[in-house]
């Protein structure tokens, strides 16, 4: 097994020198929260929300399940920094340093390739953002959440923190107190946004916690596809990412949220994602987790209206010193609601993947149906995979199916491919890519290609 | 071309092949027969480099003068060996086109591969829909064997071993498969057909017939030896 000599070899692990205009002191206190709020020029209701959340955060215990979070030191984290003042309207206005970082990820290229809008985050602030005229014409709002608080306070206030209250879990509380950046999307009634909205972001400062706050509201019969792709540079210190994503899918609306996550291998990625789905609405989470030291993420759907539908399709890959604790939650509150969870996990070189899932059917949700399938692929003896499925069914007329498989990378299949002239590494990559294909095919092509490349990169030196 | 000398092969500690000596010559067609468990498939897999098999120290195995022992299967394939599997495995999420694209990576461009796959599929009467599906997943026996032949055609090796290409295949499929094999013979490829039946020999006339029994090569003869075996069985050899 080959281990890179230096972490500098990590393909997406470049780090530009960080030159924040403002950087708060380490640690989180009431003073610091007030400082963040006033620097942002926030209204009182948001300031109060932050302060209340801080109290909850201080009282809440760390989760006693999932990944080992003992190494997180909340006092060593810088909770806010501002890279440039205000948001820059165009690419040319960006500081050259930030531009260079983005060029390495390929943002300008991506923009040329008919992006419908880019909201890229450098440190905690959204500094670059270009929204196509089409969106504005359709009445679609796509901006960073800080801007939304100022420009659209009525809409934000109505929804913000109502689906994921600060009291949900310790990291949701932390986010609620210290949040910065993230995307705000509002799609008016009946509007179908054809091209996916994409937000690229990177965190780029040592010990810097990233607490984006994303809020998506899809009014009745509207449609939207939101994509977040992230690759992060390498740091020497542990880095924490605790985002909150709240999505409201109104009657007959459809929202798809795609994530391709490749945090560098020292990031704690502890994310709370939840969607509320009304009658005949459809929510689809497509979630690919490749990077990070520990990921704990369970996108959920609260199926509130009749025939509401929720889906979570996920891929997790855990290598050396990585633990991907991921899954999904489906809560059926109404009749004829349906859900589907497809989870594919790969563990290698001592990595660990866990599937943690909940399907809950409440009394009255007659004829609810749910299909859960989780497949784990284990590449070697040192690696590990666990499944923690929970079913809570309080209604009789339901259809619930659960399937789980665990397989090892088969020597016979490898030999078959080898006999065709394909070397061991490429053969293993091929088998892994085949294994995740049912989920990967749901991802937009450009991301699927990137995912494929990342997996091939991950497979280097794992067999043989 | 393919030379076996004192070839003795073990699985773990069990001896499966016992001191085989033979040379397969370029451009010739061979038929390899023998009762079940006589070591035919083992020979095929050992030639291709299956990791489960080990050789005795004095075993010699070479292809075009190159020692194969210790050479990984992918390198054997690249030097011109091909094995059509007796029971090809299915591979989820990968089409035969994707497999071939990886196998021919850097040697043949994608569009050419696609054209050739389509062409070969047409002459093998493989349904287009089959090419879009995961390799061998829920394929019929005949379809699996045709896909093996398709790979053989695309990879264009020098020596091909077909392990029971005629088993589980209906009359019509056998006909199209045999037709493709004849093309290979015409192209001066070396063919080794492992079979239990004479029916494929209606289409292809072997230069030599080899009989294996209990891991040993017990008889080598002309084409009519196959007919004799079918009439009288292996008992009297």
From TrEMBL, chain A:
Record domain SUF system FeS cluster assembly SufBD core: where: 201-435
Residues in SUF system FeS cluster assembly SufBD N-terminal domain copies: 128-198
Entry superkingdom: Bacteria
Transmembrane segments: none
Signal peptide: none
GO biological process, one term: iron-sulfur cluster assembly
Family per similarity comment: Belongs to the iron-sulfur cluster assembly SufBD family.
Record-linked PANTHER family: FES CLUSTER ASSEMBLY PROTEIN SUF (PTHR30508), UPF0051 PROTEIN ABCI8, CHLOROPLASTIC-RELATED (PTHR30508:SF1)
Record's protein name: Fe-S cluster assembly protein SufB
UniProtKB/TrEMBL annotation, chain B:
Gene3D superfamilies, sorted: P-loop containing nucleotide triphosphate hydrolases
Domain ABC transporter residues, every copy: 2-237
Domain of life of the native organism: Bacteria
GO molecular function, one term: ATP binding
SMART domains (UniProt xref): AAA
Keywords: ATP-binding, Nucleotide-binding
Similarity comment: Belongs to the ABC transporter superfamily. Ycf16 family.
Stated name of the protein: Fe-S cluster assembly ATPase SufC
Organism field: Candidatus Wildermuthbacteria bacterium GWA2_46_15
């Amino acid at each position: 097994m080959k281990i890179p000599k230096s972490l500098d070899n990590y393909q997406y692990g470049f780090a530009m020198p960080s030159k924040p205009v403002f950087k708060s002191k380490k640690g989180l206190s009431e003073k610091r929260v007030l400082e963040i709020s006033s620097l942002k020029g926030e209204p009182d209701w948001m300031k109060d929300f932050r302060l209340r959340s801080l109290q909850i955060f201080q009282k809440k215990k760390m989760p006693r399940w999932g990944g080992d979070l003992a190494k997180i030191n909340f006092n060593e984290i810088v909770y806010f920094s501002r890279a440039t003042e205000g948001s820059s309207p165009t690419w040319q206005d960006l500081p050259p340093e930030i531009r260079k970082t983005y060029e390495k990820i390929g943002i300008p290229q991506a923009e040329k390739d008919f992006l419908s809008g880019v909201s890229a985050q450098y440190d905690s602030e959204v500094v670059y953002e270009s929204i196509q005229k089409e969106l504005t014409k359709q009445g679609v709002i796509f901006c960073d959440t800080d801007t939304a608080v100022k420009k659209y306070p009525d809409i934000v206030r109505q929804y913000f923190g109502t689906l994921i209250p600060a009291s949900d879990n310790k990291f949701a509380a932390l986010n609620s107190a210290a949040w910065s950046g993230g995307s705000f999307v509002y799609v008016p009634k009946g509007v179908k946004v054809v091209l996916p909205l994409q937000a690229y972001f990177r965190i780029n400062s040592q010990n810097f916690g990233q607490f984006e706050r994303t809020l998506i509201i899809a009014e009745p019969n509207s449609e939207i596809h939101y994509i977040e792709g992230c690759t992060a540079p390498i740091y020497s210190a542990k880095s924490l990412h605790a985002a909150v994503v709240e999505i409201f899918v109104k009657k007959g609306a459809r929202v798809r949220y795609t994530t391709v996550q490749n945090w560098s291998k020292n990031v704690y990625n502890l994310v709370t994602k939840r969607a509320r789905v009304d009658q005949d609405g459809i929510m689809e989470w497509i979630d690919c987790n490749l990077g990070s030291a520990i990921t704990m993420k369970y996108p959920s759907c609260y199926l509130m209206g009749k025939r509401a539908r929720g889906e979570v399709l996920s891929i997790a890959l855990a290598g050396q010193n990585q633990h991907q604790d991921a899954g999904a939650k489906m809560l059926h509150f109404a009749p004829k609601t349906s859900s589907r969870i497809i989870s594919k996990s790969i563990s290698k070189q001592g990595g660990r993947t866990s599937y943690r899932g909940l399907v809950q059917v409440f009394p009255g949700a007659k004829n609810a149906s749910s299909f859960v399938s989780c497949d784990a692929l284990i590449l070697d003896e040192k690696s590990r995979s666990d499944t923690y499925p929970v079913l809570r069914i309080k209604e009789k007329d339901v259809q619930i199916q659960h399937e789980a498989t665990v397989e090892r990378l088969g020597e016979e299949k490898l030999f078959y491919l080898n006999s065709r002239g394909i070397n061991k590494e490429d053969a293993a990559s091929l088998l892994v890519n085949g294994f995740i294909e049912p989920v990967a095919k749901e991802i937009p092509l450009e991301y699927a290609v990137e995912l494929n490349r990342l997996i091939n990169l991950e497979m280097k030196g794992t067999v043989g | 071309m393919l030379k076996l000398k004192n070839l003795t092969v073990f699985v773990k500690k069990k001896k499966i092949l016992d001191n085989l000596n033979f040379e397969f010559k370029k451009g010739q067609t061979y038929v390899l027969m023998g009762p079940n468990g006589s070591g035919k498939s083992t020979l095929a897999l050992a030639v291709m480099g299956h990791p489960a098999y080990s050789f005795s120290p004095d075993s010699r195995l070479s292809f075009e003068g190159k020692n194969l022992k210790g050479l990984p299967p992918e390198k054997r394939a690249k030097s011109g060996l091909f094995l059509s599997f007796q029971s090809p495995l299915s591979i989820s999420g990968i089409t035969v086109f994707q497999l071939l694209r990886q196998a021919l990576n850097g040697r043949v461009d994608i569009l050419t591969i696609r054209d050739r796959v389509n062409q070969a599929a047409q002459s093998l009467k493989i349904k287009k829909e089959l090419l879009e599906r995961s390799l061998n997943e829920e394929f019929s026996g005949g379809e699996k064997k045709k896909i093996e032949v398709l790979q053989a055609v695309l990879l264009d090796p020098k020596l091909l071993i077909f392990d029971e290409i005629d088993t589980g295949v209906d009359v019509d499929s056998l006909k199209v498969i045999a037709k493709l094999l004849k093309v290979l013979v015409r192209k001066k490829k070396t063919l080794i057909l492992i079979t239990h039946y004479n029916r494929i020999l209606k289409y292809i006339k072997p230069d030599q017939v080899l009989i294996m029994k209990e891991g040993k090569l017990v008889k080598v003869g002309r084409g009519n030896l196959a007919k004799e075996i079918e009439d009288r069985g292996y008992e009297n050899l």
